[in-house]
């Protein structure tokens, strides 16, 4: 392997193979140049980083995260699982009305922290985590962890854990997908689920 890193297309995305024989600074410089040259192609993509025998330090992972976030890229590190969870979206704390759109499914190891609202055009898979101060709109199934300040709208609820405000979701109400989106919010100290726009709550 001659270059500091190599990009490989696979069935479920793009893998970045790191060269174990060069310095990490060389890898970062090389990735920065490639991503700048092809930023339109990589914007919004998810990369799987293959260390290829390198032992990445916490500082190196943070440096890699900052570089990829600059180009709107989320990532996971092969072999480290949920230990490598990184914030892939973070907004200014003083902008409570901001809405961030994520145009892909959130997979295991991905974390989103937002001051405001989020729209996810896909599922929140088990092992992914979303925290918002406002509302979460999920155009898919919730299987991971969701912490919302106000409400969660989804096509299905089967969360590992879901909290709205300080109230924990009762998983007895979950496990089903719907044609119409449902909204989960707190009423009378409990999280209830209703068809969006209707008054009737989901029965146990």
Order of helices and strands: EEHHEHEEEEEEEEEEEEE
CATH topology name of the largest domain: Pectate Lyase C-like
CATH class value of the largest domain: Mainly Beta
**Helix proportion of residues, in percent?**
10-25%
Total number of domains? 2
Please count the beta strands (DSSP E, at least 2 residues each): 16
Mean pLDDT: 80
Structural class: alpha/beta
Distance between the terminal alpha carbons, to the nearest Å? Answer: 57 Å
How large a portion of the residues is in β-strands, by DSSP E? Answer: 35-45%
Count of runs of 4 or more consecutive helical residues = 3
The rough form would be described as elongated
Low-confidence stretches: 80-94
Strand order in the largest sheet: 5-7-9-11-13-14
- Taking all Cα atoms into account, the compactness measure Rg is 19 Å
Q: Largest sheet, if any?
A: 6 strands, mixed
Q: So, CATH architecture of the largest domain? A: 3 Solenoid
Structure description:
By secondary structure, the protein is an alpha/beta fold. The protein has two domains: 5-80; 86-195, Pectate Lyase C-like (3 Solenoid). 15% of the residues lie in helices and 42% in strands. The protein has three helices and 16 strands. The protein has helices at 24-37, 39-42, 58-70, and strands at 5-10, 13-18, 46-50, 74-77, 86-89, 99-102, 110-114, 117-120, 129-132, 135-142, 145-148, 151-157, 161-164, 167-168, 176-187, 190-195. The protein has a six-stranded mixed β-sheet. Mean pLDDT is 80; it is low at 80-94.
